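Exam prep: given the inputs below (a chain plus iron/sulfur cluster), describe the expected output before reading on.
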Amino acid sequence: MTAIRNNWTREEIAAIYNKPVLDLIYQAATIHREFHDPQEVQVCTLLSVKTGGCPEDCSYCPQAARYHTNVKVQKLMEVNEVIDKAIEAKESGSTRFCMGAAWREVRDNRDFDKVIDMVKGVNSLGLEVCCTLGMLTPEQAQKLKDAGLYAYNHNLDTSEEFYDDIITTRTYKDRLDTLSHVRKANISVCSGGIIGMGEQEDDRIGMLLTLATLPEHPESVPVNALVPVEGTPLEDQPKVSVWEMVRMIATARIIMPKTMVRLSAGRVRMNLEEQALCFMAGANSIFAGDKLLTTPNPGYIKDQEMFQQLQLTPRKAYKEEVTA
Ligand code: SF4
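Solution:
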């Protein structure tokens, strides 16, 4: 049995990342079969419950108020509207429902109370409920947990060394602190990053190193390919190749064998064969629906066709209870 390790070194991870790509896929696929059912892929839905107008300056994000993009600012949705969307997502086969708000951090105000009600409502539908709301205090994390929150997403985005090139309004340490508050509240941790932002391969390895050497591996690691949006500082970044995605996914799978590796943003620019390669390399989750917060994503019908073609089955909710 492959051991779960938290003592990876940068050199070890680099050696895996740089293996001949077919060998890398083979090793990842082998480990994947040891820990997961290779036919099973979890389908998640991500809904933007509060859109745009964000004070942060993440260079990739069309929701930052300072960039001139086509994103229309929308205040926090009503609880019943969100529950209706969650029911729709469940009926279309999603087992995890993630609610995203374009906030720097959670504030203890009426909007947070509303989010708490959303969490309770989505939880009562039997969906794994996840939120991504920015930075959290330990008390806020506990409040979310008490309301039934299953997972919290808070991406590291990139390496510590490259972080300042992408975001200046918060620090890497802020990020890690929130992850630690989430972990302490016994909420399942979802944290990954984006490639194609102008980083070096060493930065990709650095981010994986940080994730794989946390005291516990995140239960979920989303791997995103940048979808450049007009009006953001990264609007002209070239497209990420499928081999870069495959290397990231396969390396994540090998160094964090139990983790759900999520093939996230950027899927809209991949064909079926490219997505199949990512599943072969160890990805076992996708986001469904025609939008990922504000960027395009393949629709439900296309995904259903893909599941049929590749003979994949959707994973059930709460398959592995990671929280007490
Ligand atoms: S990624 Fe999140 S925190 Fe950064 S600008 Fe966008 S909404 Fe704000």
